[in-house]
Automatic annotation (TrEMBL):
Every Enoyl reductase (ER) domain range: 8-346
Designated name of the protein: Dehydrogenase
Annotated Gene3D superfamilies: Medium-chain alcohol dehydrogenases, catalytic domain, NAD(P)-binding Rossmann-like Domain
Lineage: Eukaryota, Fungi, Dikarya, Ascomycota, Taphrinomycotina
Organism: Schizosaccharomyces cryophilus (strain OY26 / ATCC MYA-4695 / CBS 11777 / NBRC 106824 / NRRL Y48691)
Recorded GO MF terms: oxidoreductase activity, acting on NAD(P)H
Length: 348
């Protein structure tokens, strides 16, 4: 089958002779319609020595064609589903191919009202946001009817609010009963306010920390840094309340030295732990666990309803045509950073 694989030299290439996967027990096999690009894709592809021929890719939308043992064929066969796989690192399979296998519980059924490109913008980013906000911080999961949980009188900071993860973090924090303040580029202010942020500030502003403190009356007690560079983590921490004790900041990369460790607990999430496998990521071993797996499975049971009712709004997308062949060029453009507030989606 056609696929995009590692070439053994920290680059990727399009091939036509990849082996078609076979669904194992508890898995589905999908004919891929769309795949999405994520920062994790290029960070692994260009920086990690991946064996030649390993298929990459995480987000996908597919039509289910086969199921493995223990999966209800009447429920899945012919269904349009969206999900994700630990691209490049997984023994289970990856998304940049004509066919993909994954755990049947780690996909969601795409509502008829949602186009495939929008659905493809959901899986990894939504999982990463939820893992941090619902599991690590402890805010409640969204209500299926869209009602907001009781207001907590505390502010939630999302640094990098226009990123894919940041957009879902804003929505989850708002639904969880928090007031939200976010940072992003000025051209995305209005979009981020529509997602639920009460205040939005330019992260390039040298006075951004002071402005966040002033706008929130020095009441930030929760946060999610969706960028997680050393300087953004430090600024996020400094924007927390002066009275913070046991406050929580989620990061997607390991934090630098914490200047307020006694007041703000930094928690790093690695969404691949939703798969019960062992991974090596930049030399560090990561092990999946039942808790993260069960949380993600329950989240995906809820996602279809949240999308259908408009409770959660997917990322804006930029679509690429031309099939899997265009992924190498699209990934290079994505890695360049010359884009904002959009998810790259490839029509297979």
């Amino acid at each position: 089958m056609k696929a995009v694989v590692a070439n053994g030299q920290r680059e990727i290439e399009f091939v036509t002779n990849a082996e078609k996967p076979v669904p194992n027990k508890g898995q589905i096999l999908g004919h891929v319609l769309q795949v999405g690009l994520n920062p994790i894709d290029w960070k692994i592809a260009y920086n990690v020595p991946i064996p030649k021929g390993t298929i990459g890719g995480t987000d996908f939308v597919a039509i289910v064609e086969e199921v493995g043992e223990g999966v209800d064929a009447s429920k899945y066969i012919g269904a349009r589903v969206s999900g994700w796989v630990p691209g490049f690192l997984s023994i289970s399979g990856s998304a940049w191919a004509e066919y993909v296998c994954t755990d049947a519980r780690l996909v969601f059924f795409v509502p008829d009202s949602i186009v495939s490109s929008k659905a493809c913008a959901v899986p990894v980013a939504l999982t990463t946001a939820s893992q941090g906000i619902h599991q690590r911080i402890g805010l409640p999961m969204p209500n299926p009817d869209g009602s907001v949980n009781p207001i907590r009188r505390k502010w939630f900071l999302v640094w990098g609010g226009a990123s894919s993860v940041g957009q879902y973090a804003i929505q989850f924090a708002k639904l969880g009963g928090c007031n939200v303040v976010a940072t992003c580029s000025p051209n995305n202010f209005e979009q981020i306010k529509k997602l639920g942020a009460s205040f939005v500030f330019d992260y390039h502003d040298s006075h951004v920390v002071e402005k966040i403190k002033q706008a929130t009356n020095d009441s930030v007690f929760f946060g999610y840094d969706a960028i997680s560079l050393p300087h953004t983590i430090t600024k996020s921490i400094m924007a927390f309340s002066s009275e913070a004790k046991a406050a929580k900041l989620v990061t997607v990369l390991g934090p630098p030295e914490n200047p307020r460790a006694e007041a703000v607990d930094t928690i790093t999430v690695f969404s691949f732990t939703a798969f019960n496998e062992e991974f090596e990521f930049f030399g560090e071993k990561m092990v999946g666990n039942d808790e993260d797996y069960e949380h993600t499975a329950k989240l995906f049971e809820l996602v279809s309803t949240l999308l259908e009712k408009g409770i959660i709004v997917p990322n804006a997308t930029r679509e690429f045509h031309g099939g899997l062949e265009v992924i190498p060029d699209a990934l290079r453009e994505f890695a360049s950073g010359n884009h904002s507030a959009v998810k790259f989606v490839i029509n297979v």
